[in-house]
Amino acid sequence: MRSFYAFPALVLCMIASASGALRLQPQRASLDAQIPRYTHIIVIVAENKDYDQVVGSPAAPSLTELARDYGNATHFYAETHPSEPNYVATVGGYTYGIRDDDAYFCTPRDSNRSCPHSRTPGYVGHTIDAPNLASQLEAAHLSWREYLESIPSAGSLVPAAGMYASKHSGFMNFRSVQRDPQRARHIVGFQDFFADIEAGALPNLAFVVPNVCDEMHGAGGAAPPGCNWNDVGTLVRRGDDHIGAIVHRLMDMPVWRARGNVAIVVTFDEDDAGSAAGCCGNDPSDPANRGGGRIPTIVITNHGPRHVTDATPYSHYSLLRTIEDAFGIKRHLRRARAPGVVPMVPLFRVAPAS
Q: For residue 259, what is the domain's CATH number?
């Protein structure tokens, strides 16, 4: 099963190597040009579920319905395991060698209790000095916010608190965000999310990450009702209810009915089985980027076509490239420009006006 799902992207990479990556550049540039400009993109990230655990599952009727009625990326893959490097890849274009869920401030041989893997061979510092989607948007004079459910306070630097975990914020790994004097405006909680929805004040890009109970990750021990990670069906049902309600609340905004293009993307960080299945931009020889399994990804657009099933191989790098295209950003980050990584045209194209 792993070989089957990885095969289409591997073929693309082999073609690129044999024929020369430059041959693919005009073709990909043509695809980039087919992504319309968007005024708002909202990315909702859930956790640790295989495609088949969500799409078509009786435990996930809301997300299954959205996948059927809007856009369903049936061959979308994560970069690696565990969670944190996938979040980093989504907003930074690479995992930067991170192979664990240690806190964003950890360094090799760090004695901090939030850095339990820091003596592992090949361990890298988890703070990254590199361009990222936030810095790209700011350079383009576009707005962004990350909405983190249960974060203790706006701009908080704590690695974990209750049902909140900073490992689910890819932006927090970048030094430019850590040192951002406006961090408390950019990294906020769900109270600000719902206030921005009510005020019609969502930024151009919104990253939305529910807490560990509401995004299907779950918790052990004395977990709240419906949050125990051993009860997968109940956990999926809880996340489906929560995320479905968020999507429908977003679709009730006046901007959803306006002329500008708006997209809501529901994706996951990695699968639940530890699979190494991957595709576009992944490298089986790179332990931090070898593939993280086939995951659900649903694209809901206000002006796009309906009932789209897209079997093109995609990864978080493909989503990043698509977001960059949709906001007119021409320089793609790191693996977002790797051979085999293409924008998600069928899911983001705009339907002709009737």
A: 3.40.720
